Each structure stands twice: as C-alpha cells, then as structure tokens.
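User: Fold this, then the next.

Assistant: Folding the first:
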Amino acid sequence: MWKVKRVLTFFISCSMVFALAACGGAEGDGMQSGGSDTVLTGEGEDWLPFGLQFGQSYDAFVETVESQGLEAPALEEANSNNGYVTENLLLANIAAESYLDYGVYIAATGDHTLENRWDGFAFSFNQDKELYEWYWFTTPSARSTDEVIQAMISTYNEKFGFDGAVNDGSDVRAVWETEGLAASIRLGQNSDGSDRVALIFHSFAYDLNS
C-alpha cells in the first residue's frame, strides 16, 4: 500500500511541471543553440522510447506502445492549448530501462534491482492528434541527483552535437534547441521533499500552437 501512496504522491507533484511543459513550446530563456548548421528534427532518430516518432498519429502511438506489451495511456484534451495530453504511463525502473535504447537510464540508476522506483512517461499531441512532446519524470535513488543529471547531459550532448548544460543556479539544468527540436532537463521536488528530474522533448515541426 505504501508503494501505491508513494507513486501517487510522486505524480501529483509532477503535475505542476507537466502542466507548464504542455503549454505548447519550449521556453526561449536560457536556450542554447547548436548553430545554423545544426538541423535536428527528431524524425527517424531514437529520441523517444518504444521506437515512437514525432508526428505519429495517436492510433499509431497506441499500436506502437501496445506492441511492447503495455497498455497505451488514454488521451484527453489539454487544459492549456487546443491539443491533447496522455495520462501518465507508469513503469518500474527496470521496465523503463528496457524500452530506452540509449545508455542514460542505465548510467543514471546503476542498480537495476530497485523494485520500489517508478518512472513516468507522458506525451502531448497537437490538434490533429500528432505526437509532438514527450516527458520523462524520474526520482533518483541509486545515485545522487547530480550524477543522474550529468549522465543525462552527457548522453544528449553527444546526440545533439553540442553542450546544452546550464549553470545559472536555476532549476533548468540543460537546454538543447535546433531548428526542429528542443529538449530540457529540469530539477524539481516531490511533495515529500525528494528530488524530481524532468526530461522534456519538444518537436517544433508538429507543434501547431507555435
């Protein structure tokens, strides 16, 4: 029972970050660009879990998620724009790791035996029900929060091809932006005082609110 309460507390506290992120568009403050020669759209690359692609219809999204033996999260109208947002898809950490085909999750957690840790994935769709945002919420436990964030930053610096680290003392720890794609890492807190790391990916090409 305590595990269920912990999971519920964690994701209730995530709702503030989630609501802000789903407003449609990565924030411009603190953005670091890869330069005019960097054009990454997120299409055809492994930016998302499960082999999902930006621009996928919700029907294709459901088919892809269910092909992994999971129940696809339901879609509901977003409060902050004309698009849609999914319910949280809860995954035990060891399950989440198996769906992320880059090394950040393994590097971040270290210990694959933690059965009381849960990660949350959520997704936003535009007015045409095309996928344009992905959110990953995680609470570090096996390693320090700084180690987790640094593992994430190292992974995405390599994938974007430039350094997105932000060292201004704010809760924004990294931002990457190209012509078609943006990502950020933010540090927050759960209601019990534990750290919460949010990774947010955003496709400009499919954001019809911008």
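Now the next one, as you asked:
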Amino acid sequence: MKLKIISAVLSLMTVAALFSGCGSENSEISESSKSEISESSAVEDITENTAKPVLSLSKTEVSAGETAEITLSVNGADGLWSMCGLHITYPKELVCEMDNEEERTIKYKLGDASENSMGAVGMLWADGLPDELEKNHLGCFFFTEMFSGNQGYDGEIAKFYLKVPDNAESGTVYPISYYFQETDLFTDSMQNEEMQEYAFSNAVDGCITVK
C-alpha cells in the first residue's frame, strides 16, 4: 500500500509540473498522465454517478499587508469524486505564499473534503503565462490531488495563502478565479465528462477585500 501511495504522489507531481505551465503541445502527454492516474485509483463502479459538483472560492476580508486565506470548496459530490486539477488566478499585486521557491511549490493546507487524499501538489505557474493572463495582470497557481476511488467529500478541499500589498487601499477588491484549460479536471474514477463539465460551468469565484 505504501508503494502505491508513493507511486501515486510521484505521478501527481509529474502531472502538476505539466499542467502548471502547459500549452497545447503538452496535451497528449497530459492526457496520458491523467489516464495513468485514473487507472491506478479507479474502482469498479457499475452505478451511474449523478454528482453535480459546485466548486467555490471563498470571499474574505483582511487589512493591508496581511495574508489572506483563500479556501477552495466543493458541494454536490460527497463521496463521488476522485481527482482534481485546477488553475486558480489572482491579481499580480498579491503574493502567493510559497512552500519551496526553487521547486515552485506553494503553501496550502488540505481540508475535510480531502481527508482521504492519497496525495496533493500545488505549484506556481511562474513562466510562460498565456497572453490572456498577462494582459489582465493575473498570476496563477495549479493545485491537483487524487484519491483511491471516489473518496473525495463535500466541504473544504484546500486553503491557499495570498499576501495583500502593504499599501493596499481600504475597499480594494482582488478577484480570485479560475483559468480552465483542456487539461484541467474535476471528475470521478471513471473520468465522468458530464460531471466535470458541470463543475467547470458552475464554479463560483472568490475575492479578497481590503478592510
């Protein structure tokens, strides 16, 4: 079992590295990696998954110079999801707290929805950001995790940490959102496309407001 978990985490790290800075040229590799993860975590399930997951990012208030805690949550998929891989965007005025600068891994804390997680990785997308993000002065990080079968719960998936500028004016609102790509995912062990499409179509943005 321990070897399986180590293997799964290594696969996750490979996928995270690909997804956090991927372009269309990486799509084939990324799809292959997704399949490997699915095969390693899938469980026989003859019942139809009717999950309608709603992803949401929290809205919070902090003072200038403080670090805001942003929570990624899900509802409508209790015990029905197996893996996620999401790009989350934020204004570049904010600074994403890092766990390891050299490896570009971000600081995060798993929540109750991730109680049975086999492994998770968060990475900053530092180079080669798409023109759309550069034009809108947005930074981006990627978070991915997986379970053995559909053991992802409803609730808080993970918390992330973004520092507000020292000179931020009271009332300033920093939007926190998603940047969905072809390689992103939120699905079950059978890679249910309808479930994923629902999750991405109904995702709720968050924000940080300066007190």
